[in-house]
Write a structure and sequence with these properties.
Number of strands: 2
Radius of gyration: 16 Å
Distance between the termini: 59 Å
């Protein structure tokens, strides 16, 4: 039987970000997102888990995911780059 892969433990902040990203997913969806993260990047990462969560939400059709973009003043604003056009500090 092959030995399990040795993955580095996520740092404290990254662990919290992964748990936040997986919040609301079923255990199977979260497991699949974590596995995809390992396959795509070789490590556990919150970005891929969040992407998969957004994909699951989009499939449901009841909610819409709006990207956030950092403004020049360091605050996060909804709507990606388009949302920044009318933003003032």
């Amino acid at each position: 039987m092959p030995s399990p892969a040795k993955l580095p433990k996520p740092e404290n902040d990254e662990r919290e970000h992964m748990l936040d990203a997986a919040c609301g997913l079923t255990s199977i969806e979260a497991e699949n997102a974590f596995a995809l993260s390992v396959v795509e990047s070789g490590r556990l990462g919150s970005g891929i888990v969040a992407r998969e969560k957004a994909s699951e939400v989009k499939k449901g059709g009841l909610l819409e995911i709006c990207p956030l973009a950092a403004s020049l003043d360091g605050h996060w604003r909804p709507g990606g780059a388009e949302g920044m056009a009318g933003a003032t500090a």
